[in-house]
Amino acid sequence: MPLKLVTVPCLQDNYAFLLHESDTGETALVDAPEAAPIQSALESRGWKLTHVFLTHHHWDHVEGLPPLREAWSPTVIGAKADAGRLPDLDQQVSEGESFTFAGHDVLVFDVSGHTVGHIAFYVPDAKAVFTADSLMALGCGRLFEGTPEQMWASLSKLAALPADTTVCSGHEYTASNAAFALTVEPENSALISRTEAIKAARQAGEPTVPSSLAEELATNPFLRANLPAVKAGIGMDGATDAEVFAEIRRRKDNF
Ligand code: ZN
Ligand code: FE
Hints:
There is one protein chain. The protein is an alpha/beta fold and about 260 residues long. The chain has helices spanning about 35-45, 60, 65-70, 150-160, 175-185, 190-205, 215-220, 230-235, 240-255; strands at about 5-10, 15-20, 25-30, 50-55, 75-80, 90-95, 100, 105-110, 120-125, 130, 135, 140, 165-170, 210. It has a six-stranded mixed β-sheet with strand order 1-2-3-4-5-6, with helices on one face. Strand 3, helix 1 (about 35-45) and strand 4 (about 50-55) form a beta-alpha-beta unit. Helix 4 crosses helix 9 and helix 5 runs antiparallel to helix 6 (about 190-205). It is globular, with a radius of gyration of 18 Å. The structure holds zinc ion and fe (iii) ion. Fe (iii) ion binds near residues 58, 60 and 61.
Protein backbone atom coordinates (compact mmCIF):
# COMPACT_ATOMS: atom_id res chain seq x y z
CA MET A 1 0.00 0.00 0.00
CA PRO A 2 2.30 2.78 -1.16
CA LEU A 3 1.14 6.27 -0.34
CA LYS A 4 2.27 8.94 -2.77
CA LEU A 5 3.00 12.45 -1.53
CA VAL A 6 2.80 15.45 -3.86
CA THR A 7 3.63 19.06 -2.95
CA VAL A 8 1.41 21.68 -4.60
CA PRO A 9 2.66 25.29 -4.61
CA CYS A 10 -0.23 27.74 -4.19
CA LEU A 11 -0.66 31.53 -4.00
CA GLN A 12 2.58 33.47 -3.39
CA ASP A 13 4.39 31.12 -1.03
CA ASN A 14 1.92 28.54 0.31
CA TYR A 15 2.10 24.78 -0.01
CA ALA A 16 -0.72 22.25 -0.10
CA PHE A 17 -0.10 18.50 -0.17
CA LEU A 18 -1.80 15.55 -1.81
CA LEU A 19 -1.60 12.08 -0.33
CA HIS A 20 -2.73 9.36 -2.73
CA GLU A 21 -3.39 5.67 -2.11
CA SER A 22 -3.29 3.83 -5.43
CA ASP A 23 -4.91 0.64 -4.06
CA THR A 24 -8.15 2.40 -3.17
CA GLY A 25 -7.90 5.40 -5.48
CA GLU A 26 -8.43 7.79 -2.56
CA THR A 27 -6.68 11.15 -2.36
CA ALA A 28 -6.42 13.47 0.64
CA LEU A 29 -5.58 17.14 0.32
CA VAL A 30 -3.91 18.88 3.26
CA ASP A 31 -5.02 22.51 3.29
CA ALA A 32 -6.70 24.34 0.46
CA PRO A 33 -4.95 27.67 -0.19
CA GLU A 34 -6.02 27.92 -3.84
CA ALA A 35 -8.25 25.68 -5.94
CA ALA A 36 -6.74 25.97 -9.44
CA PRO A 37 -3.26 24.50 -8.83
CA ILE A 38 -4.79 21.74 -6.69
CA GLN A 39 -7.32 20.90 -9.42
CA SER A 40 -4.61 20.67 -12.04
CA ALA A 41 -2.38 18.54 -9.77
CA LEU A 42 -5.30 16.13 -9.39
CA GLU A 43 -6.31 16.17 -13.05
CA SER A 44 -2.80 15.68 -14.42
CA ARG A 45 -2.52 12.48 -12.36
CA GLY A 46 -6.06 11.27 -12.89
CA TRP A 47 -6.70 11.36 -9.14
CA LYS A 48 -10.03 12.09 -7.49
CA LEU A 49 -10.23 14.12 -4.31
CA THR A 50 -11.91 12.18 -1.49
CA HIS A 51 -10.68 13.89 1.71
CA VAL A 52 -9.51 17.31 2.85
CA PHE A 53 -7.57 17.74 6.10
CA LEU A 54 -7.54 21.33 7.39
CA THR A 55 -4.77 22.44 9.78
CA HIS A 56 -6.14 25.82 10.87
CA HIS A 57 -8.64 28.49 9.97
CA HIS A 58 -6.43 31.15 8.31
CA TRP A 59 -7.68 32.22 4.88
CA ASP A 60 -4.49 31.15 3.11
CA HIS A 61 -5.16 27.55 4.17
CA VAL A 62 -8.91 27.31 3.48
CA GLU A 63 -9.83 29.83 0.79
CA GLY A 64 -9.58 27.32 -2.08
CA LEU A 65 -12.00 24.89 -0.46
CA PRO A 66 -15.43 25.93 -1.86
CA PRO A 67 -14.76 25.08 -5.54
CA LEU A 68 -13.01 21.83 -4.57
CA ARG A 69 -15.95 20.90 -2.40
CA GLU A 70 -18.36 21.63 -5.20
CA ALA A 71 -16.33 19.57 -7.69
CA TRP A 72 -15.52 16.53 -5.53
CA SER A 73 -17.69 16.49 -2.37
CA PRO A 74 -14.73 15.33 -0.26
CA THR A 75 -14.94 14.49 3.46
CA VAL A 76 -13.57 17.61 5.18
CA ILE A 77 -11.79 16.96 8.47
CA GLY A 78 -10.58 19.60 10.94
CA ALA A 79 -10.22 20.53 14.59
CA LYS A 80 -13.24 20.29 16.84
CA ALA A 81 -11.61 22.99 18.98
CA ASP A 82 -11.74 25.47 16.07
CA ALA A 83 -14.92 24.29 14.34
CA GLY A 84 -16.48 27.73 14.84
CA ARG A 85 -13.89 29.43 12.60
CA LEU A 86 -13.17 26.64 10.11
CA PRO A 87 -15.34 25.91 7.07
CA ASP A 88 -18.14 23.39 7.79
CA LEU A 89 -16.53 20.12 8.82
CA ASP A 90 -17.77 16.63 7.97
CA GLN A 91 -15.59 15.16 10.71
CA GLN A 92 -14.22 16.90 13.82
CA VAL A 93 -11.03 15.64 15.46
CA SER A 94 -9.06 16.43 18.62
CA GLU A 95 -5.62 15.98 20.17
CA GLY A 96 -4.71 12.34 20.67
CA GLU A 97 -7.38 10.99 18.33
CA SER A 98 -6.71 9.07 15.17
CA PHE A 99 -8.78 8.27 12.12
CA THR A 100 -8.31 6.16 9.03
CA PHE A 101 -7.59 7.42 5.53
CA ALA A 102 -7.52 4.75 2.80
CA GLY A 103 -6.58 2.08 5.33
CA HIS A 104 -3.84 4.19 6.95
CA ASP A 105 -3.79 5.66 10.44
CA VAL A 106 -3.78 9.44 10.72
CA LEU A 107 -2.86 10.77 14.17
CA VAL A 108 -4.01 14.20 15.30
CA PHE A 109 -1.84 16.52 17.40
CA ASP A 110 -2.98 19.81 18.85
CA VAL A 111 -0.16 22.21 17.91
CA SER A 112 -1.65 25.47 19.16
CA GLY A 113 0.53 28.58 19.18
CA HIS A 114 0.21 30.20 15.76
CA THR A 115 -3.54 29.89 16.31
CA VAL A 116 -5.35 28.20 19.17
CA GLY A 117 -6.86 25.09 17.64
CA HIS A 118 -4.16 24.53 14.99
CA ILE A 119 -3.67 20.79 14.46
CA ALA A 120 -1.06 18.62 12.74
CA PHE A 121 -1.75 15.32 10.97
CA TYR A 122 0.81 12.52 11.32
CA VAL A 123 0.64 9.62 8.86
CA PRO A 124 3.10 6.92 10.02
CA ASP A 125 2.69 4.82 6.86
CA ALA A 126 3.79 7.82 4.78
CA LYS A 127 6.46 8.80 7.34
CA ALA A 128 5.03 12.30 7.02
CA VAL A 129 3.63 14.94 9.34
CA PHE A 130 1.60 17.89 8.05
CA THR A 131 2.45 20.84 10.26
CA ALA A 132 1.38 23.93 8.24
CA ASP A 133 2.19 27.01 10.36
CA SER A 134 3.35 25.24 13.53
CA LEU A 135 6.74 23.63 12.81
CA MET A 136 8.06 25.12 9.56
CA ALA A 137 11.25 24.56 7.58
CA LEU A 138 13.90 26.24 9.76
CA GLY A 139 11.19 28.15 11.58
CA CYS A 140 7.84 28.14 13.27
CA GLY A 141 4.65 30.12 12.83
CA ARG A 142 4.25 33.53 14.40
CA LEU A 143 2.32 33.45 17.68
CA PHE A 144 -0.89 35.23 16.71
CA GLU A 145 -3.01 33.60 19.41
CA GLY A 146 -1.11 31.19 21.61
CA THR A 147 1.59 31.67 24.22
CA PRO A 148 5.27 30.75 23.85
CA GLU A 149 4.69 27.96 26.40
CA GLN A 150 1.91 26.55 24.21
CA MET A 151 4.02 26.66 21.04
CA TRP A 152 7.00 25.13 22.79
CA ALA A 153 4.79 22.26 23.99
CA SER A 154 3.40 21.88 20.45
CA LEU A 155 6.86 21.79 18.86
CA SER A 156 8.08 19.35 21.51
CA LYS A 157 5.40 16.85 20.46
CA LEU A 158 6.51 17.08 16.83
CA ALA A 159 10.19 16.84 17.80
CA ALA A 160 9.48 13.48 19.44
CA LEU A 161 8.37 11.86 16.15
CA PRO A 162 10.84 9.55 14.36
CA ALA A 163 13.75 11.54 12.95
CA ASP A 164 13.15 10.22 9.42
CA THR A 165 9.68 11.82 9.34
CA THR A 166 9.04 14.17 6.42
CA VAL A 167 7.88 17.59 7.66
CA CYS A 168 5.27 19.03 5.29
CA SER A 169 4.89 22.66 6.32
CA GLY A 170 2.79 25.45 4.90
CA HIS A 171 5.06 28.16 3.48
CA GLU A 172 8.24 28.85 1.52
CA TYR A 173 9.84 31.05 4.17
CA THR A 174 13.00 28.98 4.50
CA ALA A 175 15.59 31.40 3.08
CA SER A 176 14.66 34.23 5.47
CA ASN A 177 14.32 31.70 8.30
CA ALA A 178 17.89 30.58 7.57
CA ALA A 179 19.21 34.14 7.77
CA PHE A 180 17.62 34.46 11.20
CA ALA A 181 18.72 31.00 12.41
CA LEU A 182 22.33 31.97 11.71
CA THR A 183 22.02 34.87 14.17
CA VAL A 184 21.13 32.36 16.90
CA GLU A 185 23.71 29.71 16.01
CA PRO A 186 26.36 31.27 13.75
CA GLU A 187 28.71 28.33 14.24
CA ASN A 188 26.27 25.45 13.70
CA SER A 189 27.91 23.65 10.77
CA ALA A 190 24.75 21.72 9.82
CA LEU A 191 22.92 25.06 9.67
CA ILE A 192 25.66 26.67 7.58
CA SER A 193 25.57 23.90 4.99
CA ARG A 194 21.76 23.77 4.97
CA THR A 195 21.71 27.53 4.36
CA GLU A 196 23.93 27.03 1.29
CA ALA A 197 21.64 24.27 0.03
CA ILE A 198 18.59 26.50 0.54
CA LYS A 199 20.17 29.36 -1.42
CA ALA A 200 21.02 26.99 -4.27
CA ALA A 201 17.51 25.50 -4.31
CA ARG A 202 15.83 28.91 -4.36
CA GLN A 203 18.13 30.17 -7.12
CA ALA A 204 17.11 27.12 -9.15
CA GLY A 205 13.45 27.89 -8.41
CA GLU A 206 13.07 24.70 -6.36
CA PRO A 207 11.01 24.37 -3.16
CA THR A 208 12.73 23.81 0.21
CA VAL A 209 9.59 22.18 1.63
CA PRO A 210 9.11 19.43 2.69
CA SER A 211 12.13 18.89 4.91
CA SER A 212 13.11 16.07 7.26
CA LEU A 213 12.65 16.14 11.00
CA ALA A 214 16.30 15.10 11.39
CA GLU A 215 17.46 18.27 9.61
CA GLU A 216 15.02 20.41 11.60
CA LEU A 217 16.34 18.95 14.86
CA ALA A 218 19.90 19.75 13.77
CA THR A 219 19.28 23.27 12.49
CA ASN A 220 15.90 24.79 13.45
CA PRO A 221 16.51 27.22 16.36
CA PHE A 222 12.90 26.88 17.52
CA LEU A 223 13.42 23.14 18.15
CA ARG A 224 16.76 23.74 19.85
CA ALA A 225 15.72 26.05 22.72
CA ASN A 226 16.31 23.18 25.16
CA LEU A 227 20.01 22.82 24.31
CA PRO A 228 22.51 24.24 26.84
CA ALA A 229 24.74 25.52 24.01
CA VAL A 230 21.84 27.44 22.44
CA LYS A 231 20.82 28.90 25.81
CA ALA A 232 24.39 29.97 26.51
CA GLY A 233 24.78 31.35 22.99
CA ILE A 234 21.97 33.86 23.49
CA GLY A 235 22.98 34.69 27.05
CA MET A 236 20.22 32.71 28.78
CA ASP A 237 22.16 30.11 30.73
CA GLY A 238 19.87 28.40 33.20
CA ALA A 239 16.61 29.73 31.74
CA THR A 240 13.77 27.28 31.08
CA ASP A 241 13.28 25.81 27.61
CA ALA A 242 10.04 27.76 27.16
CA GLU A 243 11.73 31.03 28.22
CA VAL A 244 14.50 30.47 25.69
CA PHE A 245 11.96 29.59 23.00
CA ALA A 246 10.04 32.79 23.82
CA GLU A 247 13.20 34.89 23.48
CA ILE A 248 14.13 33.31 20.13
CA ARG A 249 10.57 33.88 18.86
CA ARG A 250 10.70 37.52 20.09
CA ARG A 251 13.99 38.07 18.23
CA LYS A 252 12.54 36.56 15.06
CA ASP A 253 9.50 38.87 15.29
CA ASN A 254 11.92 41.82 15.31
CA PHE A 255 14.33 40.43 12.73
ZN1 ZN B 1 -1.59 30.59 9.35
FE1 FE C 1 -0.27 30.33 6.59
